[in-house]
Amino acid sequence: MNAPEETRWLDRLRAQLDEEVRDLDAATASRLNRARQAALDAGLAQRKARLPLLPYALAASIAAVLALAVTTRTPEPTQALPVATTPSTVDDLDLLASSEELEMIENLEFYAWLELQSLDG
Amino acid sequence: MIVMEHTDARTMTEHANAATCLRERLDGFFRGVERRALRMAQFAVNDMDDALELVQDSMLGFVKRYGDKPEADWAPLYWRVLDSRIQDHHRRQSVRRRWRVFFKGGNDQDADHDPMAQVADLVSAGPLDQLHGRQAAHAIDAALKALPDRQRQAFLLRVWEGLDVAATAAVMGCSEGSVKTHLFRAMDALKRRLEDHR
Fold first, then answer.
1. Which of residues 164-183 of B touch A (CB under 8 A)?
2. How far apart are CA B18 and CA B12, in angstroms?
3. What distance in Å separates the CA atoms of residue A40 and residue B64, rounded to the nearest whole number?
4. What is the ipTM for the molecules in this complex?
5. Which of chain A's residues have a Cβ under 8 Å away from the Cβ of B191?
6. Which of B48, B67, B92, B78 is nearest to B157 (CA)?
7. CA distances from B125 to A17, B73, B129, B131, B138 (A)
8. Span B155-197, pLDDT tens digits
9. CA B151, CA A13: separation in Å to the nearest integer?
């Protein structure tokens, strides 16, 4: 069978199949119509029922992802404290660094004795 | 408050209109394919009730899963759903047959339900060159029913439905090479069976 013959043969087969489908008996056509309507009713109703849940499902998914991200987050490495530059901090450092105060702490016993002497006198 | 209610009412009306529009488009699409779908299912399962159930089930599955897809993609997607339903049907039938054989101790008393037993015997159907009209239709039916499922499906989708090789492969869930092989074998078998009916 050459190509044109094959095309003709296939055309005849197609035409025969189309004819059968076109001449479907009324009872079967009616059943098919009812089946289509039932499928559309049920399918669209199920789609409609599913749609209002979508925003909630989306919100729940986002919340779950966020919760997971927070709980499984690796702790950030501790960073070095920034160098304090405020005047109060500078003052504190000055106080700590002053040698007078340190001497006073070191001679605390002497100052206690001196105070007693002044009270007695 | 009144503005919000008005907006809600308008949104609801828009949704209702969109749903009605979708229903009409789906209805139109199904009207265009349902008879061919029924015929394909009937070729595959050899029973009108089962075929109708498969068509309804495939329509339902299509609406639920693919109703929001672009209309241009509907045809191959619908044939894909129907093909899956047909294959599921065959799997269920196969399991049932195995259980029946198991409980009846290997003697399958239900042999008259074997689909192959119901295929018309073309050799005893008389000289094919006398076939005309309904007889020709019967011969073609019988020849198509006698084909293995995948070959018949490839033939119907490519030749009758007019899908290209890639779309047929997507529908059947196989490679393009397999589609070509199935189609070649189907054509060869049909040519031999319908040799005088050209």
1. none
2. 10
3. 9
4. 0.72
5. 1, 9
6. B78
7. 20, 42, 11, 10, 10
8. 999 999 999 999 999 999 999 999 999 999 999 999 998 876 5
9. 16
Q: Measuring CA to CA, which residue among B44, A25, A19, B153 is closest to residue A33?
A: A25
Distances (CA, A) of B176 to B92, B167, B168, B188: 27, 9, 8, 18
Type of residue at B28: G
Summarised one tens digit per residue, pLDDT across range B91-105 is: 998 898 888 887 776
CA dist B156 and B162 (Å) reads 8
Q: Residue A6 and residue B165: Cα distance in Å, rounded?
A: 18
Q: Which two tokens stand for residue A105?
A: 């702490």
Please, which residues have CB within 8 angstroms of residue B84's CB and are 6 or more apart in sequence? B173
User: Is B122 within 8 Å of B139 (Cβ atoms)?
Assistant: yes
Sort out which chain A residues have CB atoms less than 8 A from B14's CB and list them.
Answer: none
